[in-house]
Amino acid sequence: MLLCDIGNTTYHFFDGIEHYKKDAKLFDPSSIKEEIFYICVNKQAKELIKPLKNWIDLSTYVDMRNYYETMGIDRVTSCEAIEDGVIVDAGSAVTIDVVKSGRFEGGFIYPGSKAMNECYRNISDALAYSFNFELDLGKMPKNSRDAISYGYLKLLRNEVVSYGMDIYLTGGDAAEFAKIFPYSHIDETLLFKGMKNIMKKANIC
Known about the structure:
Layout: E1 2-6, E2 10-14, E3 19-23, E4 36-40, H1 43-49, E5 55-57, H2 73-79, E6 85-90, E7 93-100, E8 103-111, H3 113-123, H4 144-161, E9 167-170, H5 174-177, E10 185-186, H6 190-201
Parallel strand pairs: 1-4, 4-5, 6-9, 9-10
Antiparallel strand pairs: 1-2, 2-3, 6-7, 7-8
Helix pairs in contact: 2-6
């Protein structure tokens, strides 16, 4: 069984054993002849895939009554992967979603680290620092890099930790965010687990 998460920059594949990525601008979806189940947030890619009968859109099998209409299918699918916990998907945006007893309780969207870096840089070149994820968030900072890092990271960490639930980290910056969530679970295949659960509920696997 081949699964695919299509984002704005990559096609992320999982064959049940390994996962790998293809550049969204260069990859030709018609090159795959086997049956493939996918979710997609990339409008251009979705148009390319639409006429391909072997590409099956899993978003049509999701019971959206548990979610809200404009919620991204990638967030929905990750929520389908767990019974209880807080999901922190650290990508171009950081999304935080809470699931209790298999039900989506709500969530929020935070700027990703690169986007927030740009915000500070736009304010002043003097604030053009990368974030220090190894900062001691228990102490008030005494330099500019740590000051912007503290303002970005501590608010996020405190909110996530306040739920008192297991934390699941996924996304491209998961390893960095694990430094402020040392007891979290890093799972690069979390979304694919959600896809499998959607398929089980729909009796298509």
